Amino acid sequence: MRKSGKEIAECGDLNEQKAWLIDASPREIQQFMHRVPLSPNCAEERLSRVALDIRIAEDAEIYTRRIVRLTWALIILTAALLFYTAVIYQDAHKQIQSDTLKQDGNPKHP
After folding, report:
1. How many whole angstroms separate alpha carbon 11 and alpha carbon 28?
2. How many angstroms separate the CA atoms of 3 and 21, rounded?
3. In this structure, how many other beta carbons lie within 10 angstroms of the beta carbon of residue 54?
4. SS3 sequence, 43-101?
5. Is residue 93 part of a domain?
6. Long-range contacts, 22-29 (Cβ 8 Å, 24+)
7. pLDDT at 36 over 70
8. Contacts of 56 (CB under 8 A, 6+ apart)
9. Residue 59 domain boundaries
10. Distance of alpha carbon 54 from its chain centroid, rounded?
11. Would residue 94 count as lying in a domain?
């Protein structure tokens, strides 16, 4: 069973903590950080900060890729709607011209 942030902070084995931090979620790293001393010379605190920064950057990259894909989907759908609108406009324009010719009996040029 995977250890919690509290358990791994209390174990004292730096190598085990390093291995645990590699796979830990941001929430688990936060729990770990609350259990280690805050001092400039604390290796655990520095490692946890680096691990958290990396995990946040990885998560941000995933969300950024999703946003880019969704943005491209919106661009494609907008282009399709623009094309569809142009086709409808042309059809409506032809229909108006055809109706005008039927009513007047003579061609008019707009």
Report:
1. 15
2. 11
3. 13
4. HHHHHHHHHHHHHHHHHHHHHHHHHHHHHHHHHHHHHHHHHHHHHHHHHHHHHHHHHHH
5. no
6. 22/51, 24/51, 24/55, 25/55, 26/52, 26/55, 26/56, 26/59, 28/4, 29/5, 29/55
7. yes
8. 26
9. 5-80
10. 17
11. no
Q: Report residue 74's pLDDT band, with 50, 70 and 90 as the boundaries.
A: very high
Q: Is pLDDT at 71 greater than 60 in this prediction?
A: yes
Q: What is the pLDDT of residue 13?
A: 81
Structure token digits, residue 64? 């950024």
| Residue 58 or residue 103, greater confidence | 58
Kindly state whether residue 21 falls inside one of the protein's structural domains: yes
Average pLDDT in the chain: 87
The count of domains in the chain is: 1
Distance of CA 34 to the CA centre of its chain: 29
> Tokens in use for 27?
């929430």
Orientation of helix 43-104 relative to helix 14-23, angle to 10°: 10
